[in-house]
């Protein structure tokens, strides 16, 4: 992630918090662009959990093929794995994930949840499976803590979530530059 992208994400998150504290923007535009946990109904929660479960089942069932076709596409083709279908499946699953995330974090901040936890987890130089688990842990921690903080401080959840992700990223970067990650992973 380049510096401009990081700066834009931080600026949007800080802007969201400032706007929510000042009472600006209408609820319709605000909730669509930046998300609102208050708009997620019980039916939507059940739908989101069902889709999440379905996505996880597909990933678990096809995990080896997904990994193989992602890291060595040519060899996967030779081995008989339908790489093109796997690629379409990945795009389809990502699309479903985006659609189910819109109500919580909004259109503009979904990319932060896609990118920042992954980049942070990669800095720990673990196996692919461990990186995925660490990334999921960072994302879930940020979402839950961000929602709690947004309730306590009466700020927008998406801004709080993204600022937590940025804080975890910055802390990891600091730990890595001090050499502690190398000691932890050795």
Describe it for me?
This protein is an all-alpha fold. The chain has two domains: 114 residues, no CATH class; 68 residues, no CATH class. It is 82% helix and 0% strand. It is globular and about 55 Å long. The mean pLDDT is 80.
Question: Topology, pairings included?
Answer:
Elements lengths: L2 H20 L4 H8 L7 H20 L1 H9 L1 H6 L4 H23 L4 H13 L5 H26 L3 H21 L2 H6 L1
List keywords for this structure.
single chain, 186 residues, mainly alpha, 2 domains, 10 helices, globular
- Residue stretches low in confidence (pLDDT < 50, at least 5 long) are none
Q: Mean of the pLDDT scores?
A: 80
Helical region count?
10
Element-level helix/strand string: HHHHHHHHHH
Q: How is this structure best summarized?
A:
This protein has 186 residues and is mainly α.
């Amino acid at each position: 992630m380049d510096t401009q992208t990081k700066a834009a994400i931080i600026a949007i998150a800080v802007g969201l918090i400032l706007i929510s504290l000042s009472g600006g923007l209408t609820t319709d535009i605000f909730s669509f662009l930046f998300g609102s946990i208050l708009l997620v109904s019980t039916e939507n929660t059940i739908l989101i959990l069902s889709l999440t479960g379905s996505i996880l089942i597909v990933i678990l069932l096809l995990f080896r093929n997904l990994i193989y076709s992602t890291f060595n596409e040519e060899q996967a083709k030779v081995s008989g794995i339908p790489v093109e279908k796997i690629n379409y499946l990945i795009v389809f699953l990502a699309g479903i994930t985006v659609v189910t995330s819109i109500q919580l974090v909004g259109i503009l901040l979904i990319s932060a949840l896609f990118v920042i936890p992954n980049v942070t987890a990669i800095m720990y130089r673990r196996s692919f499976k461990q990186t995925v688990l660490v990334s999921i842990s960072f994302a879930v921690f940020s979402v839950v803590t961000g929602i709690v903080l947004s309730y306590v401080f009466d700020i927008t959840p998406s801004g709080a979530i993204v600022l937590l992700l940025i804080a975890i990223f910055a802390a990891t970067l600091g730990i890595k530059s001090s050499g502690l990650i190398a000691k932890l992973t050795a």
